Amino acid sequence: MLQQPQPVEIRFLDHSTPPHVATLVAQASIAALAMNVFLPSLPSMAAYFDTDYAVMQLSVSLYLLVNAVLQIAIGAISDRFGRRPVMLGALVVFIIATIGTLLATSAAMFLFFRMMQAVVVTGIVISRASIRDVMGEAEAASRIGYVTMGMAMVPMIAPAIGGLLDEAFGWQGSFALMLVAGIGVLALSWRDMGETKSDLGGSSGIFTGLPELIRARRFWGYCATATLASGAFFAYLGGAPFVGSEVFGLSPAQLGLFFGAPALGYAAGNFLAGRYAARLGINRMILLGCITGFGGMALLALLYLAGFLSALVFFGCFIFTGLGNGMLLPPATSGMMSVRPHLAGTASGLGGAIIIGGGAGLSALAGALLTVETGASPLIWLMVMTTGLAIAPLFYVLHRERQIGA
Length: 406
What we know:
Layout: H1 21-36, H2 42-48, H3 53-81, H4 83-103, H5 107-117, H6 122-134, H7 137-169, H8 172-192, H9 210-214, H10 217-247, H11 252-259, H12 261-280, H13 282-305, H14 311-339, H15 344-369, H16 377-389, H17 391-404
Helix pairs in contact: 1-6, 1-7, 1-8, 2-3, 3-4, 3-5, 3-6, 3-15, 4-5, 4-6, 4-8, 6-7, 6-15, 7-12, 7-14, 10-14, 10-15, 10-16, 10-17, 12-13, 12-14, 13-14, 13-16, 14-15
């Protein structure tokens, strides 16, 4: 049996104890805020820097690439040097980078500082690892579910806020908001975040634990399930805007209204994971999430074959995808970190990088497959395939646990 951490007392605004859940939500949420709050400003930013829209779009794609790479390094570094110094240092770099974006005089300079901003993904990696440091597997899944539920609200409202700030202050308004948020989260983390990693230091290299984690087959099982399930959502991000505008003829305002449907399901799924993961166990929670996500896509495929496809049906069924992802990702993340608890940071970073990388690939595939002639069909079947395949790695995890008696 895996050794579980002993319960510890957590006091808010006391950096001698582990961070409060509010601090963890703030750390994870600022990473989500930096991801998409400025998206409505991309056209005005292209005009401001006198460059093509495609160049400014690199502030999204390159950011995701750097984000994925950094997650691996951040997790391993925090396993060696601790969660608190890595989190505080990352926030300082983020603040400096955000000031750089505001002072940038060219698109190249802006993109350089935008890539520096990707260090804020530390908030997601460290918040998860800090939870697993002080909690058992099932309890960690519940706490991660609550943290993710809080974080999930940011992508739902951030673009709307960014649009209002753009109208009032120009594109700089969104980055000024990031700056204020960064300073606020740094102050909160300094005051509240105690160190949760007990076995620091040593003479070994920072990445020496990576081979041990890579050899852990249950880690890959949890990671594959999370990657396929979340990859279905990334495919939605890559293909749904085309389907909404070109297949259903939705206006931008209508598309924005429909497009947020999965986020509602995701927040609800996070709540269910937080509420029931400790009671049901992480593997049952993951299985329920997989079945829910696949059920929604299977229903969509059946309605499509029966000729009942409409914008309401198409986007409505994706609520189940969001719900399933919200249910399974927190316990799957906890499972990845629980396979080798002393490498929780490395597991959080490597797993996050693989999930983002795999999801980005499926997003690009969805965009490449869709044409006016194909309609929504390629996206529907891609989603059915990925949500269905997500169940298989979990059964391997269960088989492996029976073998080792975990």
